[in-house]
Structure formats: C-alpha cells, structure tokens
Design a protein that fits this description.
Layout (H helix, E strand, L loop, with lengths): L2 H6 L7 H5 L25 E2 L2 E2 L14 H10 L1 E4 L3 E7 L6 E5 L8 H17 L1 H5 L5 E7 L9 H29 L1
Length: 183
C-alpha cells in the first residue's frame, strides 16, 4: 500500500456520536466513592477475648546509625548461638531496640542476606512476649551466621528464645551483684 495514499484518505474529523457519549450532570459518577470518602477498615482488636499485641517495629525501636551499633558492640554483652550472635546493652530508652546485620561473609548475594535479616527480625517480633518479661530494656544487635541460610524460621526462633532466657538469667545475676556491692 502506498503511504501517500493512506495519509490522504485518513479522516481527522470526529463523528457526531462521540460528542454525545459523555454523561453530563451532577449525578453522573455517583456509583464509585472517591478515595478520601471511603470508610477506614475496622480490624478486630481482640482474638478469643484477649487483646491483640502490637508486633510492628516502629523506627524508634530500631538501631539505625552505625554509632548505635558500635556502642552496643563495644560496651555490650555477647551471646553466641548456632544461627546468630547477639549483643545486648542496656538501653537509654524505655523499650527494647533492635539492630540486625548480615555481612557479605555470609553470602555475596543480597537476597540471601536480606532473607537472613527477615528471619532474625521475625524471630525478634515473635518473641515480644518473652522480651516484655525482661525488666531492663536492652539495645539488641543480632548478627546473622552462614548456617541461617539453610533453615526455616522455627530453628532461629527457638534459638533466639533460648538466648532471651540466658539474658533473663544474666539480668538477675547482674542485679544480685549490684545489691551485694551496695550492702
């Protein structure tokens, strides 16, 4: 087909039907509510009669600056496990704070390191009830180990809960030592 012929026979005029297809009027778009007019979804705040715990990790409960991590490494107590190394230091805030690291020694692949961090974050999140039992609020730094790549959530969660129990024992012994020094 000749291009010149196609351009000459192409009409740019609109048909009169297309002008009448729009619905005009105030009630033309009533069936769909606007975004800001939709009601907020209401979630149930209780499960089986007990209130829901908030498992989110807001920014205030995270260690974000390298100086915060270094402070915990230098002045904190270390607990070693098969899947993680945990450092704790009493927090200056009134709540538990978390920092997670996964170095390139674990894996050169970013998706593997991110999976390790997700597993450790989830273990911390699911252990909030155990963490609430600790009187002293700590800054926690969890360092992932290479063996974490081979397992699912159950094993790191169980290990983290064992470390929390060790922290409770450490806290009670530390409290007894300070009391004996005062007397």
């Amino acid at each position: 087909m000749n291009r010149r012929y196609a351009k000459e026979n192409f009409s740019t005029k609109q048909s009169p039907q297309s002008e009448e297809t729009r619905i005009s009027g105030a009630d033309g778009d009533q069936e769909r509510a606007r975004r800001n007019q939709t009601p907020q979804s209401k979630r149930t705040q209780e499960i089986n009669g007990s209130p829901l715990l908030d498992f989110r990790l807001p920014k205030a409960e995270r260690l974000r600056k390298p100086s915060e991590f270094q402070r915990v490494y230098k002045g904190g107590k270390r607990f070693d496990g098969r899947f993680m190394t945990v450092f704790i230091l009493p927090s200056e805030t009134g709540f538990q704070r978390l920092g997670i690291t996964a170095s390139k020694k674990i894996s050169t692949k970013a998706h593997d390191r991110n999976r390790c961090k997700r597993l450790l974050r989830e273990a911390f999140r699911l252990s909030k009830t155990e963490l609430a039992e600790i009187e002293t609020k700590f800054d926690w730094v969890l360092n992932a180990r290479r063996s974490l790549l081979q397992v699912k959530l159950e094993k790191p969660l169980a290990e983290f809960r064992q470390i929390v129990e060790k922290v409770k024992i450490y806290e009670s012994q530390k409290g007894e030592n300070t009391l004996s020094k005062v007397e």
